[in-house]
Design brief:
alpha+beta; 24% helix; four-stranded mixed sheet; 23% strand; HSP40/DNAj peptide-binding domain
Length: 332
């Protein structure tokens, strides 16, 4: 997948105001609209212009795109890194135009960042709350609760095992007096409950948008994602890791020390184990009701034959298993 420079597509600088983005889009949309344009490849160019507009016209999508664009050259192979959008706070509203339409035809690049159709990145609260509403004939703001905000936050896997309290920095795009985007930061103390799952939302009451007319603020929903771990990977509540063993430990059986998120344990490797065999530690996955399981996947490590004695040992092994044919299954 190729990284797309949406600013270059619209012919504007990265410092362009939202109004400048809108004007550039309107000019190019008139130029390349397939119903009237005689430009070569007008339909494809119009599609690219519309996609760039959808990415940049909404301040929240634009802020997230800007963050990753600073680290990526246009035209280069691209894959969103894990947790790339962690820490951005969103109000839950979408952009204008076709954003949120299930029929919107955007590129794989766009959808890898913003989802299919580029719709609102909303949390459980949804986008409908927090708009100002004027009483008919009264002219004064009617009290209305503030809108809900949401953000993705990344935590360590061990936080789910133990629970934790973390200071988290959230960034929210706002426009300055000249219509240019800036990121406004705030810090929150967040309690991570034991057993939290990836994709779960934590609700922080009254931490969303302020209310109007004296009404309460909205809520903030934090969507949990786990930072990549050097040892463990997840499948729901189950935790999986690779356990290296020697050929003789796999063949003869052994008791080995295995790491777990709760500390090392002594784990029995059954005799005759093969590569990829899973050893289950029941209830040692993510805490919950019921808890997940922990799986050690055996990975057989062959030692190098670096000395004469080691080469002789391999030769003796070859003689002892002269009738062993490892590729027998390939012969039908």
């Amino acid at each position: 997948m190729e990284f797309k420079d949406y600013y270059a597509t619209l012919g504007v600088e990265r410092t362009a105001t939202q109004d400048e983005v809108k004007r550039a889009y309107r000019k190019l949309a008139r130029k390349y609209h397939p119903d009237v344009s005689k430009e070569p490849n007008a339909e494809a160019r119009f599609k690219n212009v519309a996609e760039a507009h959808e990415a940049l016209i909404d301040p929240e999508r634009r802020a997230a795109y800007d963050d990753i664009a600073r680290r990526q050259a246009s035209g280069q192979p691209f894959e969103p890194p894990p947790g790339w959008d962690s820490g951005f706070e969103f109000s839950g509203r979408g952009g204008d135009g076709r954003a949120g339409s299930p029929d919107a035809d955007f590129s794989d690049f766009f959808e890898s960042l913003f989802g299919r159709g580029g719709g609102p990145r909303g949390g459980p609260g949804g986008p409908g709350r927090g708009r100002e509403d004027m009483r008919r004939g009264g002219g004064s703001a009617r009290p209305e609760q503030g809108g809900d905000h949401h953000a993705k936050v990344s935590i360590d896997l061990l936080d789910s095992y133990q629970g934790a309290r973390r200071t988290m920095t959230l960034r929210m795009p706002v426009e300055d007096g000249q219509g240019r985007l800036m990121l406004q930061e705030r810090q929150l103390e967040v309690t991570i409950p034991k057993g939290v799952r990836e994709g779960q939302h934590l609700r922080l009451a009254a931490q969303g948008a302020p209310g109007h007319g004296g009404a309460a603020a909205g809520d903030l929903y934090l969507e949990i994602q786990f930072l990549p771990h050097p040892l463990y990977r997840l499948n729901g509540r189950d935790v999986i890791f690779d356990l290296p063993v020697s050929p003789w430990e796999a063949a003869l059986g052994a008791t080995v020390t295995a790491p777990t998120p709760e500390g090392p344990v002594q784990l029995g490797v059954p005799a005759g184990s093969s590569q990829g065999r899973k050893l289950r530690l029941k209830g040692k996955g993510l805490p919950g009701n019921p808890p997940g399981d922990l799986y050690a996947v055996l990975f057989i490590v062959l030692p190098a034959a670096a000395t004469e004695a080691q080469r002789a040992a391999y030769q003796a092994l070859a003689q002892a298993f002269a009738d062993h044919e490892p590729r027998a299954s390939l012969n039908g």
